[in-house]
Design brief:
Blueprint (H helix, E strand, L loop, with lengths): L3 H14 L4 E7 L5 E6 L6 H6 L14 H4 L9 H8 L1 E7 L6 E7 L2 E8 L4 E7 L6 H5 L4 H18 L4 E6 L2 E6 L4 H9 L7 E7 L3 E8 L11 E5 L2 E3 L2 H11 L11 E7 L4 E2 L10 E2 L2 H18 L27 H6 L19 H5 L17 H12 L6 H7 L3 E4 L3 E6 L2 E6 H19 L4 E11 L2 H16 L3 E6 L2 E8 L7 H18 L4 H13 L9 H12 L14 E5 H7 L5
Parallel strand pairs: 1-7, 11-13
Antiparallel strand pairs: 1-2, 2-6, 3-4, 3-6, 4-5, 7-8, 9-10, 10-13, 11-12, 14-15, 16-17, 17-18, 18-22, 19-21, 20-21
Helix pairs in contact: 1-6, 6-7, 6-15, 8-9, 12-18, 14-17, 14-18, 16-17
The structure holds adenosine-5'-diphosphate and magnesium ion (MG).
């Protein structure tokens, strides 16, 4: 028992095992206050109810052959016992043949009370104040959005593997999911949103002792976030990187390497060919012959991609090969390390002493006065206004006019890098990384001071979210408002946005909102960082100018200027470098000359 989501998983699995046709999950405070599962399954007798909290109380192994053929979830008989040890549990249950049910209260492994009670057929288990008696464990629980995300993950896994069972999820009295008994494709759409209707391809492949079936997503809908990849072996969710690789392999050439296709695949295999108990949480599995399973999965996916005649899209990104420059990079430090160190290691990067706008140029020597390049496309460039207004708000000791008219030896390379002349040589700026750094620090300050300025819309925009995303949003509400978003809940899963942060371009509110949640999920799963940082990073990523955006001279210079006004100008929030310098000496060396 690690977290509320672990209780959710065990209780839902038990409900499914009990033959229920309807299972409701109720959580309060992301499960920290309450996790309750109500089912209409077969229920328990008075003795069974009491027994169920004993260790090894499983009712699932009756004959020894059961050990091999068991297809239900748990058979260790430990889940209820371990939940009962660390929470205040109340169970109400009644079998069909009994007139009265039984209510049993367990606290810290002790049965406090058992009494007859009138109740519906089935079982209702409330797990209150998880870890109430283990404060150290309780304090290890993550923020509500993170714990809620885990709960939604578990809920989705069970809901996917039993589409014919009705499920509901209530979060703080609000209904997040209401899933009727339905077929798998409908279930996927109910869980992930109607956009998935167009994305699904069926997948099916049979062999003697093993079958694969399910749905995969069209390559063009692949996401940069992991999380919508589901493998079920004999209807149990498992993680298996080897099989994930088989699928990625089948998608090869159809998606870029940093993307993940959607898939929900069920592998049915004769249980004598697997060992399900290799991992205590049972999300891992061992096959007798992994290679056969790999080949089958890959073949199945390839075939369905093929029959749906998906042609590769050739151009994913206009990647310019800039590898030659890597010689000039500063030694790369692990992103995780950078974040922990707060981004700046004086030892390694001693030449950059926290520059401020008024003096950073001194560090690099002055710009040369080389008048060139007109600034005429400034007016029609949409990013102009944003960067310009940012420039106006900038407290800079340097006269802007001076900067913009003087720094004309600055130019943009392939819409991606800004190159500017400095005394020692050249400075190369990755425009997107730099802008992310600038925005990240801005948003972080806003979040810390809860000072996000917003621009109000004349016409509010409504945004429809998937139920899972909506549930996450409600947990992140306060922080998102602190960033400058003004929004209200219109109806289930629909948010009405009245305003967005002042320095974010309007026009793509829906995308921004969805992206924010998406990014939050991604960062959450990749890095363990504080929630504010996570949000600031997400929004920065989402609203930074993209690679490929043409910049005017004014914009380029403003960007560089703002970058060096940052606390940690050298790195993007993800740890990538924002700038590299190319010293004259190194350039000379490239031409085999002495400096
Ligand atoms: P396991 O599921 O591994 O058998 P658990 O600790 O999860 O062990 O549950 C112990 C036993 O309690 C189960 O074997 C089952 O007999 C009974 N039980 C638990 N939950 C339910 C439920 N929702 N409906 C009916 N019986 C249940
Ligand atoms: Mg169980």
């Amino acid at each position: 028992m690690q977290r509320p989501a672990s209780a959710v998983k065990e209780l839902m699995e038990n409900a499914v095992d009990a033959g229920s046709t309807q299972v409701d999950l109720i959580v309060k405070e992301a499960g920290k206050l309450l996790v309750q599962v109500i089912d209409n399954g077969k229920g328990m007798s008075i003795t069974d109810a009491r027994m169920s909290f004993e260790r090894h109380a499983t009712s699932k192994i009756v004959k020894s052959e059961d050990l091999f053929s068991i297809r239900t979830f748990g058979f260790r008989g430990e889940a209820l016992a371990s939940i009962g040890a660390v929470a205040q549990v109340e169970m109400k249950t009644r079998r069909q043949e009994d007139e009265l049910g039984t209510c049993i209260k367990v606290e810290g492994s002790e049965v406090k009370e058992q009494s007859p009670i009138a109740c519906e057929q089935g079982t209702s288990i409330s797990v209150k104040n998880l870890f109430y008696n283990v404060p150290a464990r309780r304090s290890f629980l993550k923020s509500n959005p993170v714990e809620m995300k885990h709960i939604i993950d578990e809920f989705q896994r069970v809901a996917l593997s039993y589409p014919h069972i009705g499920f509901r999820l209530f979060q703080n009295d609000m209904e997040v999911y209401q899933l009727p008994s339905e077929k798998l494709s409908r279930r996927i759409v109910s869980l992930f949103g109607s956009a998935y209707k167009e994305q699904l391809i069926t997948c099916q492949e049979d062999m003697d002792f093993i079958k694969v079936h399910g749905y995969i997503g069209k390559p063009e809908h692949a996401k940069k976030t992991r999380g919508e990849q589901f493998f079920f072996v004999n209807n149990r969710f498992i993680r298996n990187n080897y099989l994930h690789h088989a699928i990625m392999n089948a998608y090869e050439d159809l998606i870029s390497s940093d993307q993940f296709p959607f898939y929900v695949l069920f592998i049915d295999i004769d249980p004598s060919h697997i060992d399900i108990n290799v991992h205590p949480t049972k999300t891992e599995i061992k096959f007798d012959d992994e290679k056969i399973v790999y080949a089958l999965v890959k073949a199945a996916v390839k075939k369905s991609l093929g029959t749906h005649s998906i042609t590769p899209s050739l151009d994913f990104e206009h990647n310019i090969n800039f590898d030659a420059l890597s010689n000039f990079n500063y030694p790369r430090t692990e992103p995780a390390h950078i974040e922990r160190d707060n981004g700046f290691s004086e030892k390694k990067f001693g030449s950059f002493q926290k520059p401020v706008p008024s003096d950073w140029q001194k560090l690099y020597g002055g710009f040369e006065r080389v008048p060139e390049q007109s600034d005429q496309d400034r007016e029609d460039n949409p990013t102009s206004k944003r960067v310009e207004s940012a420039a106006n708000s900038m407290e800079s000791g340097v006269s802007k006019d001076l900067l913009y008219t003087e720094n004309t030896s600055t130019f943009q390379l392939h819409g991606r890098y800004i190159i500017t002349q400095i005394k020692s040589g050249a400075l190369i700026v990755d425009q997107q990384a730099a802008h992310e750094r600038i925005l990240y620090e801005k948003y972080l300050t806003m979040l810390t001071n809860k000072s996000g300025a917003s621009q109000q819309f004349l016409f509010p925009q409504s945004v429809q979210l998937s139920p899972g995303d909506f549930a996450l949003l409600t947990e992140m509400e306060e922080e998102i408002r602190a960033l400058g978003f003004v929004f209200g809940v219109f109806s289930q899963n629909t948010v009405v946005i009245n305003g967005i942060p002042a320095d974010v371009q309007s026009g793509s509110e829906k995308e921004l909102f969805e992206g924010l949640i998406e990014q939050f999920k991604m960062n959450k799963s990749e890095l363990k960082i504080d929630k504010n940082e996570n949000l600031a990073r997400s929004l920065a990523r989402k609203s930074a100018i993209r690679t490929g955006t043409k910049l005017t001279l004014l914009e380029m210079n403003t960007l560089i200027d703002e970058l060096f006004a940052c606390k940690f100008p050298n790195y993007a929030p993800n740890g990538n470098l924002t700038i590299v310098t190319m010293e004259m000496g190194k350039i000379a060396k490239l031409f085999n000359r002495q400096a």
